[in-house]
Predict the 3D structure of the following.
Amino acid sequence: MLSPMSSRTLLVQPLTQQAFAVLQGGNAALAEQICRQVLAEKNDVLDALFLMGIIAVETRRLPQAEQWFAKAVASDPGNAAAHNNLGGLLHQLNRHQQAVESFDRAIRLKPDYAGAYNNRGAALNALGRYQEAAESCSTALRMAPGNAEARWKKPNAATVPSAASCASELV
């Protein structure tokens, strides 16, 4: 039999799913309201923390997004996606070395994480480390051969540096 606390906890997942659906429907304000409701009940719900970070990115509140993604990492340090999302945001903030470090943590946690290799390539490229960027994107392509974005944007050491670019999406 469930205790009252357990039954409230069971409501968290449907609410975060609802928030995600609302966000996909374009209503960031309502999605944020739902996530805040979830986090008021339990402040370390990983999915709600992720969504708050995504909402903050979509509404161009990047410093807040960093706080939410950092909370997600703190909530579950062993979650590769949390490190990858934080790295993606750090890359957007032009803090490329920190981004590479976050992507490296994601890869250590999940060695077959093609998205993290792809994002790592973008950050390395921004640092001018073109050979490493190309290797990282090549690794992503080996893991996910259908990743057309990585194939099309894969840096090449022989290309003009400004043209070398890897995907920079939060994956």
